[in-house]
Design a protein that fits this description.
single chain, alpha/beta, Aconitase, domain 4, six-stranded mixed β-sheet
Length: 173
Amino acid sequence: MTGVIHLEGRARILGDDVNTDYIIASTRKRATLDEQILKQYLLETLDPAFAGSVLPGDILVAGWNFGCGSAMEIAATVILASGIKAVLARSFARTFFRNAVNNGLVPIECDTSRIREGELLAIDVAGDAIRAVNRTTGASVPAVVLPALMSRILACGGLVELIRHGGWNASPD
């Protein structure tokens, strides 16, 4: 376990109101809930070629209301299964935000309007401090501070990992 999260990857730009059925279509979930199978259909409603273009470490960058719609945990786990470890968005649907944290997907609320497709991003989360930098432009991307409890869950890799390592009394280092 570590108390610091460091991520680097290329920006993958999405728009506003990306709902959980866009992340993984409900027709796909009828056949299986195995995220290792479902990851090949990530965001296929928006772009059928998207899943095949994902590189490990890519970072989703969205507008307003990311993860709206139904409160399916599988939406966050499919994103993680694809190799994406973080989502930057102007705002998140509350249930998606919590599902992301509980599963170890880093949700960062910030102004994403100046980030472009393919730009290199670097993210550091240490305690409640978040530092996001667009390495392509050199611009800092100010982010909303995460509550301490959520930072602790993320530092452990998700809620299950936090419990596995001794729960709330475990040291994240």
